Amino acid sequence: MSSLSPRKRVTAPAVRAMKGAQRIGMITAYDYPSSRISDAAGADIILVGDSLGMVIQGHANTLPVKLEHVIYHTAAVARGARRAHIVGDMPFMSYQVSPEQALESAGRLVQEGGAHAVKLEGGREMVPQVARIVTAGIPVMGHIGLTPQSVHRMGGFKVQGKDAGSARRLVEDATALEAAGCYAIVLEGMPAELAREITASLAIPTIGIGAGAGCDGQVLVGYDLLGMNPEFRPKFVKAYEALHERIIAATRAFASEVQAGTFPAEEHSFHGDLRVVHGAVDGERTVYGKVR
Questions:
Q1: In a domain, 237, yes or no
Q2: Among 9, 94, 134, 183, which is most exposed with the fewest C-beta within 10 angstroms?
Q3: How many CA atoms lie within 13 A of 237 on its CB side?
Q4: What's the mean pLDDT in 101-122?
Q5: Distance (Å, rounded) from C-alpha 238 to C-alpha 173?
Q6: 164 and 260 together in one domain
Q7: Is 233 within a domain?
Q8: Do 254 and 185 reside in the same domain of the chain?
Q9: DSSP E strands, 149-205
Q10: Residue 3 covered by a domain
Q11: Do residues 107 and 29 share a domain?
Q12: Catalytic residue among 112, 121, 172, 188
């Protein structure tokens, strides 16, 4: 992750300046505890992705996600991160209608959700939206290649840019997004050679997912890298833990102890009169104590 000061907030200009200087680590998170963990681990960017539709809500794709959903989760993430740059994803039909709609949606993600920047999918066709948002002072991260909101047009979650014509169009899309004012671009689901070519052609950083090691940074969904869903393991995902199995084991142990009557044990039980002690641990938590 980043070598920047652990106390200094990562900004859009700081992300742009990482191009050629250091690799960018971006983690997708959706809640306060995940945000705190990602921030403590040194993530440069925390993306509140519309992937929450699949990861959190259980949908087959991201299309059912509404702007209000992303605002809600972005606000939780923003409260948990002290250093990481927070990017709110713009969900399906929150920006495609017009540049004015795009600006209004982006403004809500910043004003209500606490995002520092927004991300939207699409290439040259999204240039007016990007330009309008950037002109209003909101940083925009682009996203090209496998764009999940276009799943029906693509006929599924398929690698893009595999032939010369589509590869050329993606290069042109990246160039257009940079010219429109994007400070970074996500490259998803494309051949590694193409992602490397796009990365070399731009003055702004690229962040890859399923696009090889030639990008300026990489992003993974936090739940995926922790191994929370063994049924979802695409080729580009590396699970650094197997928390699914460990959480099941821990929960099963709890249920077993409840059935056996061994939980709660003496050390988990209160005795005497209780009162809430309104103090703070790390300046954040309320602790409970007992009065004998």
A1: no
A2: 9
A3: 20
A4: 98
A5: 28
A6: no
A7: no
A8: no
A9: 184-188
A10: no
A11: yes
A12: 188
| Cα–Cα distance measured from residue 208 to residue 190, given in angstroms and rounded to the nearest whole number | 9
Of the pLDDT bands very low, low, confident and very high (cuts 50, 70, 90), residue 290 is very low
The closest alpha carbon to 143, from 125, 123, 158, belongs to 123
Task: Check residue 183 and give its pLDDT.
Answer: 99
* % helix, strand, coil for the chain, step of 5: 40, 20, 40
129-169 residue pLDDT tens: 999 999 999 999 999 999 999 999 999 999 999 999 999 99
Per-residue pLDDT of 118-134, as tens digits, reads 999 999 999 999 999 99
Nearest to 65 by CA among 128, 121, 19, 6: 121
- Of the three residues 195, 225, 255, the one that is the final residue of a domain is 225
| Residue-range definition of the domain harbouring residue 274 | 245-291
CB 125 within 8 A of CB 173: no
Within a domain: 149: yes
pTM over 0.85: yes
Predicted confidence at residue 233, as pLDDT, reads 77
